[in-house]
Amino acid sequence: MLANCGIYIMHTDKLTVNIAPKAGFGYDIFIGSGISSKIKEFLKEKTSANKFLVVTNETIYRLYKNSVDFGENADFVILKDGEEHKNFESLQIIINAAIEHKLERRDCFVAFGGGVIGDITGFAAAVYLRGVDFVQIPTTLLAQVDSSVGGKVAINHEKGKNLIGAFYQPKFVLADTDFLKTLDMRQLKTGLGEVLKYAFIEKSCACPLNYRFFDFLHAHKSEIFELKPSVMAGLINICCTLKASVVAQDEREKGLRAILNFGHTFAHAIETLTNYKRFTHGEAVAAGIKMAMRLGLEEKTVDEDYVRAADELIAKYGLDIALPAFDSAEFIEAMTLDKKADNSKIRFIVPDGDFLVKMVSDVPREKILRVLE
After folding, report:
1. What pTM does this model have?
2. Residue 170 sits in the same domain as residue 49
């Protein structure tokens, strides 16, 4: 049991995501150290597949090809590393491999990698034979705390991030904290960019538990950077529980789920305008959170003390990045093309008090310009 800063988490190796109103539909998230050694058993028990198509990237395959066993009925697709490869070309490579290996509707895709691999594998599973099962085995912190859970799957378009996708839930998620040991510092921090988001939206997640996650992050910074297994399991548990609470009530982002995009409208524009190469997703999210906080100041939904506290937490985790001087008109255009836009109006998630957020639209252009400046 973790017992710091008012946070109490009973030890568990499993969470369940129940999707309403799909009676009886749910899937499990398994969290722990060393559990990837039983992937073959998980696949056999949790799916009805005869064949598995494991989609990964060059880095993950090199690291784990001799230590992670998917069984004798598994074939591999190895994609190039990087967000820039979450595209039609990689999607076609996956589909071609599935056809070549004669995967049938009862068979299963396995996403073995970070958020890019999870997103594109899930989308391929959603469209192949009108839908086959897929499993998420996330290897990065960002994927373990966020992108592997909730069923958002997609590829990018040159005009915007995740513009082509679907809502398609995995059969299960297996998050082994041991995978995090191979991350370099920048990749660890990019996951932490998504982690910090949950600290600012916690009270809006409609979760019956009060974690005081903001305090947890302040108290456990050194143990998080040391990847202490019990603390990392607790951190992943908190983030997944908060997200599962939201997704269970709003799978397709008709309302509540939009809060999970806190900082992301700005972040996706940053990524688009830098061709997904200059900043990692988590770095862009951290910058987007700071911009959303300042929009909250413009909207008078928060005070300067709270914005300062947010800035301090972001800086504490080494995510206070310097952005280039963007053209304001191009930045606003990129946000208008964001998939969350409605009737060509940019929808923002802004802070609405401590650890609360809300959606706003029809924000006057001059307010947005002041934030961008």
Report:
1. 0.90
2. yes
